[in-house]
Specification:
Layout: H1 2-10, H2 14-54, E1 57-61, H3 76-89, E2 91-92, E3 95-96, E4 98-112, E5 117-125, H4 127-130, E6 140-143, E7 151-155, H5 156-162, E8 169-175, E9 181-192, H6 197-200, E10 203-207, H7 208-215, E11 224-229, H8 235-245, E12 252-256, H9 257-260, H10 262-300, H11 302-310, H12 315-351, E13 353-354, H13 359-364, E14 370-371, H14 377-403, H15 407-411
Parallel strand pairs: 5-10, 7-9
Antiparallel strand pairs: 1-11, 1-12, 2-3, 4-5, 4-8, 4-11, 6-9, 7-10, 8-9, 13-14
C-alpha cells in the first residue's frame, strides 16, 4: 500500500520528478563518459607500448635494461633454455598464457641519408615471428615489410627527417661488440606509421642476421626474446615464474612492459585512484542536489503530512513512503542514465572519438588520434549501487524530518 502511494506521489508533480530524475541522469552519464574516455586513453597508451615496442615482456641478459649494451646478450644455450621455460608456461589449467615469442637484436646507432644523420635504435627481427609479437608489419603505409637482407623499415617521421622515400638508400652505423665501428647500406623497403612521433623517428627495423653483423654478434647471439601473452592479466604470474626459473645469477633478466615503461605503469595505477576521486566528486554533487530538492519537496508537503498523521498514519509510514519515493526516482534515473550511457559509450567504443586536432600532443604519449571508449562491468555496477545509495540517503534525512512534524503545526502550515 505504501509503495503504491509513493509511486503515485512521484507523478503528482511531474515537473519536480523530471528535475530530480534529470539530476541523477546527468550525474550517471557524466561519470560514465569521463571514466570511459579516461580508460580508453590509458588503454590506448598501454596497447601501443605492448603491441609496438616488444610485447608484454622480454627475456634478456641480466642487467640489460638497467644499462643497455651490446656486451649484454643471450647465447644460444640461454635462448634454448628460455624457450623451454616459455613452453612450460604456455598453458595453465587449460588456458593459454604465452601466445608468441620472437628473438630481437637491439643496438643503438646512427642512420644517415644524403641530407642528415640521426640517432636511432636499430631492431633486428625475424619477420615471420615478429609479426606475431608487434604490429609494425600491419602499420606499413608505404612500400612493404621486410623481405630480404639489405632492406629496412623506418617510421614516417624519420623518413621525413631524412628526406627519403621507399627504395632510397640509407646507411646504418653502430658500435660493435668488439668496439669497432660497423656500417652498412640498406634500401628502404617500407615506411610505417603508428601515431607516435617519438616512436616513428626512433626505431629502425631490419633482418636479424644483418643486425647481428652490425652488432658484431656471432653464433646466433641476440639481445632479448620478446614475449606476447594471450592476456595482460597473466603478466604478473608469468614474470614471477620466469624470474624464478631463469634467475639473475644464471645470467637472465626478465622485464615486463611496466618495468620498461614506468610512465605507462603510473598511468595504469593512477586509474583506480582517479576513478575513486571522480566517483566521490560526482556523487557528492549529485547527493547535494538531490538533498536540496527533497528538502524543498518536504516543505511543500508539510500540510499533506499533517493531514495524513491526523488520519492515523504513523510517522514511520511517512518515513517509509518518502524513502520509497527516493528509491523509485533513483531507479528511474539509473535506468534512463544507463540506456543513454550505453548508447553513447557503445558508439564511441565502436567508432572512437576523433581527436585529430590534438594528435601532436597525444602522439607524445604514444596515443593515437582516435580514442575508443572502454568501461568495465565493475564500473557499471559501482555507479548503479552508488546512485541507489545516494538517492536513499538524500531522501532519508528529509523523511526523518517530515516524520517529526507536530500534527497541529503541520496542518496549519502555509
Amino acid at each position: 500500500m505504501i509503495s503504491k502511494i509513493a509511486w503515485r506521489n512521484i507523478w503528482r508533480n511531474p515537473l519536480r520528478s523530471v528535475v530530480l530524475v534529470t539530476t541523477i541522469i546527468i550525474g550517471i552519464v557524466g561519470f560514465w563518459l569521463m571514466m570511459a574516455f579516461s580508460r580508453g586513453l590509458v588503454d590506448s597508451m598501454i596497447d601501443s607500448i605492448i603491441n609496438l615496442h616488444a610485447g608484454h615482456l622480454q627475456i634478456s641478459a641480466d642487467g640489460y635494461y638497467q644499462d643497455p649494451s651490446t656486451n649484454l646478450y643471450l647465447t644460444r644455450p640461454q635462448q634454448e633454455q628460455a624457450q623451454t621455460q616459455l613452453s612450460m608456461l604456455k598453458t595453465k589449467k587449460g588456458k593459454t598464457r604465452v601466445a608468441h615469442s620472437a628473438p630481437i637484436v637491439s643496438v643503438q646507432g646512427m642512420v644517415s641519408s644524403s641530407e642528415t644523420s640521426l640517432g636511432v635504435m636499430i631492431h633486428g627481427v625475424q619477420p615471420d615471428q615478429e609479426r606475431q609479437v608487434t604490429e609494425i608489419a600491419d602499420r606499413i603505409v608505404e612500400g612493404k615489410y621486410l623481405n630480404s637482407g639489405q632492406n629496412v623499415v623506418i617510421g614516417k617521421r624519420l623518413a621525413d627527417q631524412l628526406k627519403v622515400e621507399v627504395s632510397d638508400k640509407i646507411v646504418l652505423i653502430t658500435n660493435s661488440l668488439n668496439g669497432e665501428i660497423n656500417s652498412g647500406a640498406f634500401r628502404v623497403s617500407g615506411i610505417y606509421r603508428v601515431g607516435s612521433s617519438d616512436f616513428e623517428k626512433s626505431f629502425v627495423y631490419l633482418m636479424i642476421t644483418e643486425a647481428q653483423q652490425l652488432a658484431g654478434y656471432q653464433d646466433q647471439q641476440i639481445t632479448a626474446i620478446s614475449v606476447q601473452l594471450s592476456n595482460d592479466k597473466y603478466l604478473a604470474e608469468v614474470v614471477q615464474e620466469l624470474r624464478k626459473n631463469l634467475p639473475a645469477d644464471g645470467g637472465y633478466g626478465t622485464a615486463s612492459w611496466k618495468d620498461q615503461n614506468p610512465i605507462g605503469k603510473t598511468y595504469e595505477e593512477s586509474m583506480s585512484m582517479s576513478s575513486g576521486i571522480i566517483i566521490g566528486i560526482t556523487f557528492v554533487a549529485v547527493s547535494l542536489g538531490l538533498l536540496n530538492i527533497f528538502l524543498m519537496v518536504i516543505y511543500e508537503r508539510i500540510h499533506e503530512f499533517g493531514v495524513m498523521m491526523a488520519n492515523g498514519v504513523r510517522p514511520s509510514k511517512i518515513r517509509q513512503m518518502l524513502v520509497l519515493e527516493g528509491l523509485f526516482l533513483g531507479l528511474i534515473g539509473t535506468a534512463c542514465g544507463t540506456v543513454i550511457s550505453v548508447a553513447v559509450i557503445g558508439h564511441f567504443a565502436y567508432h572512437g572519438l576523433d581527436l585529430s586536432a590534438f594528435s601532436e600532443g597525444l602522439s607524445t604519449f604514444g596515443v593515437g588520434s582516435v580514442i575508443k571508449f572502454t568501461l568495465s562491468i565493475t564500473d557499471f555496477l559501482t555507479v548503479i549501487i552508488c546512485v541507489q545509495g545516494v538517492a536513499l540517503l538524500s531522501a532519508l534525512y528529509p523523511a526523518i524530518k517530515a516524520s517529526r512534524f507536530k500534527v497541529v503545526d503541520a496542518i496549519n502550515f502555509e
